[in-house]
Design brief:
By secondary structure, the protein is α/β, with parallel strands linked by helices. It has helices at about 15-25, 40-45, 55-65, 85-105, 140-155, 180-190, 205-220, 240-250, 265-280, 290-300, 305-310; strands spanning about 5-10, 30-35, 50, 70, 110, 125, 160-170, 170, 195, 200, 205, 230-235, 240, 260, 300-305. The protein has a domain at about 5-175 and about 205-235 and about 305-320: NAD(P)-binding Rossmann-like Domain (Rossmann fold). About 40% of the residues lie in helices and about 15% in strands. The strands form five sheets. It has a seven-stranded parallel beta sheet with strand order 3-2-1-4-5-7-12, with helices on both faces. A two-stranded parallel ribbon has the order 6-15. Strands 8-11 form a two-stranded parallel ribbon.
């Protein structure tokens, strides 16, 4: 990475963003972060922090001045919300990042996508990157990320911008501020139930492996590299049995394992009703007790073939994530 002197991370204040910034600084690469919020921990690390909105092109252009590459991590990640909010942040924001690269002559763009872009509500059992985008999405998050991913990959230009999309699945590790705290809160409030038969398998990835994959992508990304213009699934060697994994987390936090089950169709119907009521009342700012996408994600299997990432990205899947460390 000797030719990379300075990078921009959008969403640098997030779990992956902070760990990635730390790793880049360890490689003596200067890091700038563009986020909506302020993150003193980034400043303390030596990261140049800019507080601004991705939907404003001038803000993105200012943040991207003088950088050699961009990691585009920032996104609206939620199980519910208005289409306009998802579209503005995830699609318009991505368009602005691409435009900044093109206007400023930035040659490398690594986009953090999600396997949800190919999830259409059915089990995904060891599928690879040839899996098409679904014709219909029940998740506005997944739909907006799919649009953004297509834009990023299409922006690859001969002798110009080189792009790659990474699809890490359920990034976990000590200090995770997202999934584990939410699970613990729901468990403490007695609101956590197994959806479906509890036998579904899902991919996960340790935060360190996700960071390593992003660094490898940056290092390998050129116009003539095999990763240019492509998307890659990322996860550990083997999927976990989701509800068994969740129960191990709960037990490690001195909480009882969840055993009560709700049939998938009931959960899905409940999600549809909650979404309908929220839509007609315009309630987009709060989490719903259930959504159709949550029901699908927690009841179905979704794990992937990682051979392309192993071959092209030099990705090394790990043995897994220890649930008692979370």
């Amino acid at each position: 990475m000797s030719e990379i002197k300075r990078v921009l991370i959008t969403g640098g204040g997030g779990f992956l963003g902070q760990k990635l910034a730390q790793a880049l600084l360890g490689e003596n690469i200067k890091v700038c972060s563009l986020s909506r919020g302020t993150y003193p921990q980034l400043t303390a690390m030596g990261v140049t922090t800019i507080c601004g909105d991705l939907t404003d092109l001038e803000t993105v252009l200012a943040a991207a001045q003088g950088v050699d590459a961009i990691f585009h991590l920032a996104a609206k990640v939620a199980m519910w919300g208005s289409w306009e909010e998802f579209y503005q942040t995830n699609v318009v924001g991505t368009k602005n990042v691409i435009s900044a690269c093109q206007q400023l002559g930035i040659k490398r763009l690594v986009y953090t996508s999600t396997p949800s872009v190919v999830f259409g509500g059915e089990d995904l059992l060891g599928v690879n990157e040839s899996t098409p985008y679904p014709k219909k999405f029940v998740s506005r998050y997944a739909h907006s990320k799919a649009i953004a991913e297509k834009l990023v990959l299409a922006a690859t230009a001969p002798n110009g911008l080189a792009t790659v999309a990474l699809r890490p699945h359920l990034i976990l590790g000590p200090g995770d501020p997202n999934l584990v705290p939410r699970l613990l809160e729901k468990a403490k409030n007695g609101k956590l139930k197994i959806i479906g038969d509890g036998e579904n398998l899902v991919d996960i990835i340790h935060i360190d492996r996700a960071v390593a994959a992003h660094l490898s992508a940056l290092n390998l990304l050129t116009n003539d590299s095999p990763i240019c213009g492509k998307a890659y699934f990322l996860a550990e060697k083997r999927p976990v049995r989701l509800w068994e994994f969740i129960n191990q987390i709960l037990i490690s936090h001195q909480l009882p394992a969840v055993s009560k089950k709700i049939p998938f169709r009931i959960a899905y119907l409940a999600g549809a009703i909650f979404e309908f009521i929220a839509t007609i009342t315009g309630s987009y700012q709060k989490d719903l007790p259930m959504t159709r996408f949550v029901a699908q994600q927690f009841a179905h299997s979704h794990y992937f073939d990682h051979q392309a990432a192993i071959r092209d990205l030099k990705f090394v899947p790990g043995p897994g994530v220890n649930p008692t460390s979370l």
